[in-house]
């Protein structure tokens, strides 16, 4: 009764929501329900859902052939996420410290610092792939050939360690912009008088950074790293563009595994089951993020 | 002391240039390589300066549209992204107004539900959407592509616009109603005109979300005719004979340049857009 009264008293407020809620119900809530159902059913391309098979799709991941790749992809996801989030925060911090200064044409440098964000991840990934792929026309490959670190092979992205590091590097290039925007604001928000008094005590630039800048921007730094973690865990486009998850699965994170299962092998039932597992793993992160968002308001 | 200052200043510029080179190199690479026609890309692959080190040509920009389906890719991307922006933005304006300026029970919960899709990785959304779209026979269609993009652009736009509505002065509607406006009239005569620049920017950000997407577009588009630019470039990468690399470079360059132009026109709103993502 209370529920009905709330609707009657505020019907115009709810009316504003109606178009969005109808769309989201059709495009999100019903499909999620369908996917839960799908994880207990077989699937055939062109036919759709077939017969009920119980927990078979889940057993494939827990006790069948899927267990080894799943465990491996979890390890890859953790290392990949940690390295790229750490890396993009560090890169963003360097950019922010430099461009926060009162340089001539500073607006231009700040704008150019964000340029990676303009590239679609897939396209940026493919361009980097060619830069890394071969000698002569792949500039990065050519430069690496001047160093003693690599064997001049035709495809350096087929060597495990280099492939993994390449994917991390490109991920950093594409996504540090978010961290940069937040950290630039944080660095510029550090009160000037703190630096002045540090200088009076004879602090070197490094000491100023360590004892003044870093403690002041620390909350922003941790917030950025957390948000980037939430949004890096589920992304697959850059590993897919550069290595397709190879060589030997070293760049197959959970998202790539899921994508391959669904849209390369077309095992939609198994993919749906893996999706449910992935969602369960992500849930604590998402819940924490929602909590933080609410606290910020 | 003065000497020291000078070293410091030079050091800062060196670091700045190093940073910006890292940020810009893929753009420069795609552009310079796109100026090398056909096999020139292999002969002059490591040459950087046009006119001095190699003879530049714009042939790739013609060939990509005449011999390769890049025109179709761009068209599909624009149809999908524009369609989604056109559906999502008006719906989001209403919803965001309600979330940003009205008080009623259940608001926070409804808001969280409305923006859920934004915490879910796209690949997790793609599987349920695929099941739905294949039931409705919408795979390989433009409406399917538009609806798939709408699933993510709608929550994104609601989130962004709510922020703008919240920032407006508190008593605007009340003032309008004192002058005899109905709540609905106060919305579209007072609030909406004030928000139009923001609404337009959010429309463009929604368009960019579609432009940048790979996973959802890959799920819907399974023949060349329904490939977006991201999906198209990815598929050409695995199929194309290497001597055709020069059109990949011009295609990639255009796919990265167009968002750059859109973003440059957004300025302040761009920062808001990035903060949400």
Describe this structure in words.
The complex is a heterodimer of chains A (297) and B (277). By secondary structure, chain A is mostly helical. Chain A has helices at residues 2-9, 11-38, 56-62, 67-99, 106-113, 121-133, 139-145, 160-188, 192-200, 205-233, 237-243, 254-263, 268-296; strands at 41-44, 48-52. Chain A has a two-stranded antiparallel ribbon with strand order 1-2. In chain A, helix 4 crosses helix 8. The longest helix of chain A is centred in the first third of the chain and has 33 residues, at 67-99. The radius of gyration of chain A is 24 Å and the shape is globular. Chain B has 277 residues and is an all-alpha fold. Helix content of chain B is 76%, strand content 0%. Chain B contains 13 helices and no strands. In chain B, helix 3 (59-66) packs across helix 12. Chain B starts with a helix and ends with a helix. The mean pLDDT of chain B is 86. Classes of the chains: A mainly alpha (297), B mainly alpha (277).
Short précis:
The complex is a heterodimer of chains A (297) and B (277). With 297 residues, chain A is mainly alpha-helical. Chain A has helices at 2-9, 11-38, 56-62, 67-99, 106-113, 121-133, 139-145, 160-188, 192-200, 205-233, 237-243, 254-263, 268-296; strands spanning 41-44, 48-52.
Shape type of chain B: globular
Number of helices of chain B: 13
Mean pLDDT of chain B: 86
> Strand count, sense and closure of the main sheet of chain B?
none
General shape of chain A: globular
Q: Major sheet of chain A: size, sense and barrel closure?
A: 2 strands, antiparallel
**If you compute it from the alpha carbons, what radius of gyration of chain A comes out, rounded to the nearest whole angstrom?**
24 Å
**What is the terminal separation of chain A in angstroms?**
31 Å
Percentage of residues in DSSP E strands of chain A:
under 5%
* Lateral arrangement of strands in the main beta sheet of chain A: 1-2
Name the structural class of chain B: mainly alpha
- The SSE order of chain A reads HHEEHHHHHHHHHHH
Low-pLDDT stretches of chain B are none
| Largest interface pair | A-B, 88 and 93 residues
> Could you tell me the mean pLDDT of chain A?
86
Tally of DSSP helical segments of chain A:
13
> How many individual β-strands of chain B?
0
């Amino acid at each position: 009764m209370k529920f009905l009264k709330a609707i009657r008293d505020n019907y115009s407020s709810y009316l504003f929501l109606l178009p969005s809620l109808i769309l989201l119900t059709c495009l999100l809530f019903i499909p999620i329900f369908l996917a839960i159902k799908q994880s207990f059913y077989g699937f055939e391309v062109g036919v759709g859902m077939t017969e009920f098979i119980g927990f078979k799709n889940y057993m494939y991941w827990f006790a069948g052939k899927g267990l080894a790749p799943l465990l491996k992809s979890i390890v890859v996801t953790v290392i990949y996420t940690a390295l790229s989030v750490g890396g993009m925060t560090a890169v963003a911090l360097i950019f922010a410290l430099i461009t926060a200064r009162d340089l001539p044409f500073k607006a231009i440098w700040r704008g150019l610092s964000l340029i990676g964000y303009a590239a679609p991840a897939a396209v940026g990934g493919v361009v980097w792939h060619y830069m890394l792929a071969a000698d002569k026309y792949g500039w990065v490959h050519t430069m690496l050939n001047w160093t003693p670190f690599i064997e001049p092979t035709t495809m350096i992205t087929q060597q495990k360690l280099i492939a993994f590091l390449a994917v991390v590097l490109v991920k950093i290039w594409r996504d540090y912009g978010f961290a940069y925007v937040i950290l630039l604001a944080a660095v510029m928000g550090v009160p000037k008088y703190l630096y002045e008094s540090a200088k009076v005590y004879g602090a070197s630039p490094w000491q100023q950074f360590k004892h003044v800048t870093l403690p002041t921007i620390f909350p922003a730094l941790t917030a950025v790293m957390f948000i980037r973690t939430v949004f890096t865990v589920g992304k697959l486009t850059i590993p897919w563009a550069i290595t397709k998850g190879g060589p030997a699965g070293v760049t197959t994170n959970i998202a790539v595994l899921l994508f391959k299962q669904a849209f390369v092998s077309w095992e939609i039932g198994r993919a749906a089951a893996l999706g449910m597992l992935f969602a369960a793993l992500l849930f604590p992160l998402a819940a924490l993020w929602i909590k933080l968002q609410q606290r910020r308001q | 002391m003065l000497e020291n200052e000078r070293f410091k200043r030079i050091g800062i510029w060196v670091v700045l240039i190093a940073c910006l080179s890292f940020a810009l190199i893929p753009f420069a690479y795609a552009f310079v390589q796109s100026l090398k026609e056909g096999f020139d890309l292999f002969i002059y692959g490591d040459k950087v300066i046009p006119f001095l080190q190699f003879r530049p040509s714009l042939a790739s920009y013609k060939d990509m549209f005449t011999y390769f389906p890049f025109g179709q890719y761009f068209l599909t991307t624009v149809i999908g992204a524009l369609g989604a922006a056109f559906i999502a933005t008006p719906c989001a304006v209403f919803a965001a107004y309600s979330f940003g300026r009205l008080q009623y029970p259940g608001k926070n919960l409804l808001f969280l539900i409305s923006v859920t899709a934004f915490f879910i990785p796209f690949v997790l959304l793609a599987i349920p959407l695929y099941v739905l779209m294949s039931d409705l026979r919408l795979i390989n269609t433009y409406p399917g592509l538009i609806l798939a993009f709408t699933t993510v652009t709608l929550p994104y736009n609601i989130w962004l616009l709510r922020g703008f509505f919240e920032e407006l002065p508190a008593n605007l509607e009340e003032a309008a109603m004192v002058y005899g406006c109905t709540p609905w009239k106060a919305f579209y005569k007072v609030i909406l005109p004030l928000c139009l620049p923001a609404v337009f920017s959010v429309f463009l950000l929604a368009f960019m979300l579609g432009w940048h997407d790979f996973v959802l577009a890959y799920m819907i588009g399974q023949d060349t005719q329904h490939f977006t630019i991201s999906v198209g470039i990815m598929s050409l990468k695995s199929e194309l004979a290497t001597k055709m690399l020069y059109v990949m470079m011009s295609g990639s360059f255009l796919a990265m340049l167009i968002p750059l132009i859109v973003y440059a026109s957004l300025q302040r709103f761009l920062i808001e857009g990035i903060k949400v993502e």
